[in-house]
Amino acid sequence: MIRVSVNGEIKEIEKDLNITQLIKALEYKTKGFAVAVNTTFVSLASYEMTKIREGDTIDILAPVQGG
């Protein structure tokens, strides 16, 4: 297990997860959100290749409606 920050909350997750696996493990159901790892946005095409490491800061941002 490793410790990471997800949206400002410390979480313990399995080691060697990629972003797709992390989203599934955290049970996010919303579609169309953006993910940043250590303040760098990750493209959807890179989710499978981007591994989460000990101490990473992950921000999962859902779209906001308004106007």
What coarse outline follows from CA principal-axis ratios?
Answer: globular
| Name of the level-1 CATH class | Alpha Beta
Helix content: 10-25%
CATH topology heading: Ubiquitin-like (UB roll)
Number of helices: 1
- Strand numbers in spatial order across the main sheet: 2-1-5-3-4
Counted up, domains total 1
Sheet with the most strands, sense and barrel status: 5 strands, mixed
Gap between N and C termini, in Å?
A: 42 Å
- The SSE string, one letter per element, is EEHEEE
The CATH superfamily is known as: Beta-grasp domain
The counted number of beta strands is 5
Which CATH-level-2 architecture?
A: Roll
Radius of gyration of CA atoms, rounded to a whole number? 12 Å
Low-confidence stretches: none
The secondary-structure class comes to mainly beta
Q: What value does the average pLDDT take? A: 91
